[in-house]
Design goal:
heterodimer; A: alpha/beta; five-stranded parallel sheet; globular; B: alpha+beta; six-stranded antiparallel sheet; five-stranded mixed sheet; 12 helices; 13 strands; about 50% helix; rod-shaped
């Protein structure tokens, strides 16, 4: 699912158009990966915080889409480490909770953006594009 | 006290020629000191002792008459008679007949054992009596008992009998008082015991209530947890369905022909509706369980309306419905921003949904009466018949609309809206809109009033 053919619509595909998608739900990984791949991004995935840390260190993605609740190590818990592992990446937290204090806490731990589940595909693409535009 | 004085005066008049002054003083003192006596045993002890001293007899006992059983009940202590002989001793009131008939309320004076029959002698034997005088105790015309005086050397004189008779009248009062006082004390004790018992019962009830309350809270918590979990469990697959369908519709998996595209858009609409129902059900359950907590703030009305209208701008544009606002000067409201947004969004979405393309929806706000702010959302739809205006707020109630091709709602939106409005202490109802459609009118408390 992470492979996917490079889309023709992204002639300027650089290695920094790499997105790490972290979620314990296979369906969500597939939907997001396919959508991003179709939009010309390279996508790698992880199913929990520990995997995510390893991928972030090795691959240095420009954007990380991070679920908060996962087995072994949740996104919330992993946030500071991920931030250190990939200081340049834009971290988009994907959460089912509209809870404001939680958002503030995530921001304090290094999150840049928030996306509420079920996510809007338009917003996914907008926030991802923004992640790579800012540098 | 007046009664004592009068009695003593009477005795004085009666006995003056024959009784020494000292004795009369003694009688007065006795009467006075007895009048205030409240302890029943002390009363009998002192009465019998003073009487024995007064007449110079060997033994003295007071017995009370019990009308229900027609028995005498010996009272202890007596004078010079063992308590064991008196305690719990009761005997027929006619035991000394015919020598003494208590019904005549007169005394029996200086009777010797040989004047009684064998049975009566047997009855008297334990008391060691050789000379017996019985003086009735009469209180308010009622025979209440007797004083038994025994073994005065040489027997009681006539004057002794007169003295004892007067003393007996006083003693009857004293005894009645003491008994009344004891009954009062018993009642008080019973009352206190009852209060203790009731208090204990109340405490037990309270503990039970607390326990059942705790159980209810636990059940309630389980229900909330369950709903939270169910909601999460439902949302996750729904999100997957929606995600895949969105990907398909947006050509992520390749181009689509018309028929699959149409089918998929129906799948998406229904998945969306299911998603809204899950949220609405969760909302309603929270509201009905009292789990919704308002975080009210001072909110400028114009911002609230603008936010709601902006949020639905794309829906309105899609349906070619114009949304106008007419915001007159009014105080800010005191409300929870998220909830008011939900209320206004719900009303506005309904209005847009039921207004035909090319028509218009109007949102107005103004200062209402009594510290309230009035909002109205008017649509250009078919309107709501007067008979259905109350029922539109019922759960799952859908007004039978002429045009039925509109996507159905969850049937919970207006119920939730009304609950949220009422949580704020506001009101909501339906009127006719000027253009013939429906107008949902909403009153919310103004900040100046609520914050005061």
């Amino acid at each position: 699912m992470t492979g996917g053919p490079q889309h023709a619509a992204t002639p300027s595909a650089r290695s920094d158009r790499l997105v790490l998608v972290v979620d314990d739900e296979d369906d969500l990984l597939q939907i997001v990966s396919d959508r991003l791949t179709a939009a010309g991004y390279q996508v790698i995935t992880a199913r929990d915080g520990i995997e995510a840390l390893a991928r972030a260190r090795d691959a240095r993605p420009g954007c990380i889409i991070l679920d908060l609740k996962m087995p072994r190590l949740g996104g919330f818990e992993a946030l500071p480490e991920i931030r250190r592992a990939a200081p340049a990446a834009c971290v988009i937290v994907l959460t089912g909770s509209p809870n404001r204090p939680l958002r503030e806490a995530c921001r304090a731990r290094g999150a840049d953006e928030f996306m509420l589940k079920p996510f809007d595909p338009g917003e996914l693409l907008r926030l991802t594009a923004q992640a790579f535009d800012r540098d | 006290m007046g009664r004592v004085r009068a009695a003593v005066e009477a005795v004085r008049r009666l006995l003056r020629p024959r009784r020494s002054y000292r004795e009369l003083e003694g009688l007065e003192e006795i009467s006075r000191s007895f009048e205030a006596m409240t302890d029943i045993r002390e009363t009998y002890g002192r009465l019998t002792r003073r009487l024995a001293e007064l007449v110079g007899c060997e033994k003295c006992v007071i017995s009370l008459y019990e009308a229900e059983t027609r028995e005498f009940v010996c009272q202890w202590p007596g004078y010079n008679v063992a308590d064991e002989l008196l305690r719990k001793v009761r005997y027929p009131a006619d035991v000394l007949k015919p020598a003494w008939n208590f019904r005549h309320q007169g005394p029996m004076v200086n009777k010797r054992p040989e004047q009684f029959n064998e049975e009566q002698r047997a009855f008297l034997r334990p008391f060691g009596v050789y000379n017996l005088t019985e003086i009735p105790l009469v209180h308010e015309g009622r025979f209440v008992g007797k004083i038994s005086i025994a073994n005065k050397p040489g027997g009681l004189s006539e004057n002794d009998v007169r003295l004892v008779t007067v003393f007996a009248a006083q003693a009857a009062v004293v005894i009645q008082n003491a008994h009344l006082y004891r009954r009062l004390q018993e009642s008080a004790a019973q009352l206190e015991a009852k209060v203790h018992q009731r208090t204990a019962e109340l405490q037990a009830t309270y503990r039970e209530l607390e326990a059942s309350h705790a159980r209810l809270r636990e059940v309630d918590q389980l229900k909330s947890d369950f709903l939270g979990n169910v909601s999460h469990e439902l949302r996750t697959p729904l999100a997957a369905v929606k995600g895949y369908v969105d990907n398909l519709l947006d050509g992520v998996a390749g181009p689509l022909t018309d028929k699959p595209r149409h089918y998929l858009s129906r799948v998406r609409d229904n998945a969306d509706r299911l998603g809204r129902m899950v949220s609405d059900l969760l909302d309603l359950t929270r509201i009905e369980a009292g789990k919704i907590e308002l975080l009210p703030q001072v909110l400028p009305v114009a911002d609230l309306v603008t936010d709601a209208v902006d949020g639905l701008r794309h829906v309105a544009t899609e349906r070619r419905v114009r949304v106008d606002t007419a915001l007159r000067d009014c105080p800010p409201v005191w409300a929870d921003p998220d909830k008011v947004h939900q209320i206004l969004t719900n009303l506005l979405a309904n209005a847009i949904k039921f207004s035909p393309p090319g028509s218009r929806v109007t949102v107005t706000s103004s200062a209402g009466m009594g510290g309230l702010v009035r909002f109205a959302v008017e649509d250009s739809g078919p309107g709501i018949p007067a008979t259905e205006r109350e029922r539109v707020f019922d759960k799952f109630y859908q007004v039978a609309r002429l045009e039925s091709e509109r996507p159905p709602g969850t049937g919970l939106g207006l119920t939730i809206t009304r609950h949220l409005v009422e949580l704020h202490g506001g009101r909501i109802w339906v009127e006719d809109a000027r253009g013939g459609g429906a107008a949902f009118v909403l009153l919310l408390p103004a900040a100046s009033e609520a914050a005061a």
